[in-house]
Records
---
Amino acid sequence: MNLSTHALVGMTVGRLSKKPLLALVFGATSHAILDCLPHLDSWDPLLRVIDGTCTVAALTWAQSSPKPELEIAGAIGALLPDVENIPGYGAVTEPKKLFPSHWFRHETRSARCGIAVELLVLMTALAILSWPYPNRTRQIVP
């Protein structure tokens, strides 16, 4: 999945968490789950720049939420596993990976199915994040 997809899903699970540490763990878990879904990884430089820009925009959006620490922790947890992919970019032999969902190649998946799944995940995450934050205080109506 693209970094922006991981970040938005991480923000979503962060919003649903109660503590930043849980948001971080759930974000990393969401990364593993997303990597197991059909998707298409692109290494096109222009698409990487667009994806990076969207990721920064998502993190900026998270800062304006009522509980930014939860959404940012979820996004960081979702993004951290991909740090190990940086040294392998453009390498002749790919270095060994630590994160379990990186142990198999993602590019062998169907392109159409991968794009459709990633768009569905993105739209779902954006819909949840666009929903107003729940008001957790109870009001007693006389």
---
Amino acid sequence: MEEIGNSIIKKLISLPQNLPKFPTDHSTLHPVESPPTFRCIPSTSDIISDLICSKSPNFYDFINRYGNPDVEYPIFLESMLNSCEGKPWKENRRLYGAIDIDATADGLESCGLEIPFRNPQEHVQSDEGWVSSWTPPGAISHTHMDFYGSTQYFVHISGEKLWLMWPPTERNLAFFSTLHKQPWKADRTLKCIEMLEGLQLLYNDSPLTPFALKPNTLHACVSFSSSIHSGIRVCSLPYFDLSYSLIEWGIGWIRGKNGMTRSELTEEADAIQYEINMWSILVKKNRHHRHFTTIKDKLKELTVSLVEIRKKLDVVPPLFAVK
């Protein structure tokens, strides 16, 4: 991981433009109106409680780049301690992180973490609630996008982590389409630094720093220490046009197949359906909004397109007759 991480940092240093610690425009980040509120300050112990209580912990090996839900908690904690203490590396070791840790009543939910939107009527949060990621030092999450059309509101809880971010421009999406949902390769982020436009950096080293990624912002993360951030998906009326175009892109991407299996494409169709459902809930909350009819009609268009895709995906290919 040191070699891969160093190559990313050296590439960033070699770029001709200055890259500040926090973006100076809003091409990738949605401006946070005010800091989050909470009953008690979220801490690592809350995330550990969530991890223990989680029904489906998602452990990830950053060396071999694959998820492993069957890792036992002591093995994960031993891996985290070994990496934090900088113990000499052995070939049989793993570099485990925990991603998508659901908030529970015994952990993060007990903190009462809330986003103080200026106009809450124009926003709806995912019913999946807050989720957290805990990554070890040396972990690299190579360039990816998480959802189709959702804003992601984050709170950095602990550690030092560098975020590389690119806006979902037409050029960037065209290049990234062949990488989307494919296994991460060691040189993916380097290629993205070279090929994508509008790179911005965000360096988080202060606890309880809030930030919000705009819909489909491409991003990669490099952890310099044990790091934790928590986030929640949000649909926001001011971003409907952007979200609509990006959900359209996602539907077009599914149509293109891109080497994915039928079950993998069905999973992405489910993800887009979830986005449409969130938007439908938000629209119902805003029946008197001046663009209510237009937004409702566009959601119908997306639904029709998705239904057509699902009909094709639901057809099981016939087996070849054995001669």
---
Amino acid sequence: MKCYLDSNVYISSARKEIDPKLNILFHYSDLFFAKCRTNKVTLVLSRLFFDEIGKTISLNKQDILQFMNEAKINYEIVEEIKQFKKEALRIQNKTGLHLADSFHAAIACSSQCQHIITWNKKDFEKTETILPCLTPEEFISIF
């Protein structure tokens, strides 16, 4: 199985985040990563993923990959995103999704992912007809 990983899942783990409703996001993010390891899930990571983490918590790609390698999590990296512009624009026009999120969805679809994993499920609700999205907590309960 392949899943596209939104940066907020990694960020919640690294920051030990708890949301305003006192949901322990980091706990579920950590359980999600453990589930990926045991179930041999491949996470698709894009340049957008690395850029967003760098801007938000100042970790670089090497730091993130070190975590993935030490946790024994399978991953694929999509470096070049220009090739997804046409598909991102098509998704944006079809769904009304923001362009940046349309790029995430385009990369996920093109990478043959089964799900987008995100804590901002509301941002990706419009992609449900194209590609379902799950929170880490939902992923854990299903798989």
---
Amino acid sequence: MVAIALLAILLTTIACASVDSKKSNNTTPYATEVSILNYGELSKIRHIHKQIEVANGDEVLVTLLSNASTGFSWNENAVIADTSILQQLKHEAISAGSNIPGAPGAEKWNFKAIKAGTTTVHLEYSQPWEGGEKGIWTFDLAVTVK
């Protein structure tokens, strides 16, 4: 019985050690998030400037308040000053999560740091049609990739 108990403890220890080694070898990129989801913040500052520092290979997630029912939206494709440093992976609209007509949602962009250096991301909240209001809000993010 003692031998069986020792064997069970040994097998459990080996199993735990292999799980821990898989965790330490995890190469999932780290994601840095920048979110502005408060209308009060947007209403006070129409031209928002932020800066972050990330490691090469990391992802940058930007989420900004948006309300499609107003006819305004952020530009789908961010203007990236140096696309050899940062690449846009994805853009998506996020619903309000409410059945209330006119409830605000958000828009989210995923970027990937692909080389060391510094670049900027520029987004504008506008009415996209000809004659629509442009650049009502702007968002500029300075990104330094180490």
